[in-house]
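Last lecture ended with a question: if I hand you only a sequence, what can you say about the shape of the protein? Today we answer it with a concrete record. The protein is Galactokinase. Below, first the input exactly as provided, then the predicted structure, then a couple of comments.
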Amino acid sequence: SRHSDPAPRQPAAPDTTAVRREFERIHGRAPHGVWAAPGRVNLIGEHTDYNDGFALPMALPQRTVLAARRRADGLLRLHSAQGDGRTTQLRVAELAPGAVPGWARYPAGVVWALRERGLPVGGADLYLDSTVPTGAGLSSSAALECAVAVAYDELYGLGLERPELARVAQYAENAFAGVPCGVMDQMASVCSAEGHALHLDSRSLEVRQVPFDLTGHGLRLLVLDTRVQHDLADGAYAALRAGCERAAKLLGLGALRDLTEPELPAALAALPAELVPLVRHVVTENARVEQAVARLAAGEPEALGPVLTAGHASLRDDYRVSCPETDLAVDTAVAAGALGARMTGGGFGGSVIALVPAAAAPAVAAAVAEAFAAAGFAAPAVLEAVPSAGAGRLDRAGPGPVGGTRPG
Ligand code: GAF
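The predicted structure:
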């Protein structure tokens, strides 16, 4: 090939031993354990989760690794390898929405959310290191929240089920960090399995593991980070969510999930014009999730391509959350040989996924880079999405009072 490999060195998860060593250097004692939680891409099912609908995300190999040790004095001490080199010290009993700025609001929010549920959790020393790119639409905040949620679950012997951990993390983001997100990113982070995509029902939180074998079919899934930073707290996301909720109410439905494709024409005729494209996107997107799952279940991952590209058109034309950079990346990838491509995540920037025959991957990545340069856009970053495991403990044999131990 005349092009070099677009994603040659995968930034794997941070090294467990190095994280443990850094924890000891910073906090002066050994951690009780080391946990990790991944970022995600969503294959299809965008802006459906807060409509009680369906999605098909998968965990990335990129993840947040967290070393943690329980403290008996009610202090929460946080240190991040991606931070400013300082340790943030908070009193667990004084945690309140809006009181913690910066990245620390995500881990602190999880501790707060657990206590809001009446669970007996106290302080901890935490050290975090992450390979999930921030601001790229790859759920770095969900990875951070979910790493803390799984660690606290064991440190304080809570025994919560995975969907409950996801709900706690989502509540932290909604009520503590002030981002009105749905539950998809947190469910993807805690429930994903290696080699699978996660078929999620956002109403029941039931999940099904759908085998997703890219390599065996000669495929690669590229992640093209447009470098356009999105911010879900800036109001556009909340406005879309409110529009969907208003439409459901006008139609007399619990949520837009309850509207099926055959019922769509009559429903659209009954709605004010500004809600029509929103509802059309959500209903057709839920149908695309079912199509995608059927194609994967039939052992035809290459047949996902057209579903991805149709999903992007719906996000661009109906939901209107794409931007010139994501549109250019999608169009260029498809023209250069991708089987399909779409923006992934909330939109307004972030990343595009492109399903490509392995042999075409270098040419697709090069074509997108060239098109971005020609348009005067910043060079996109390229990652490879490999369906990976969800959150969990990394050092099963680690010492310390974890697993079933309740605070005294
Ligand atoms: C963001 C949100 F956090 C998710 O809950 C979901 O709504 C997504 O945007 C759009 O599908 O990632």
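Comments.
1. The pocket of 2-deoxy-2-fluoro-alpha-D-galactopyranose is lined by residues 46-47, 49-50, 181-182, 184-185, 232, 345-346 (CB under 6 Å).
2. The CA atoms of residues 193 and 389 lie 4 Å apart.
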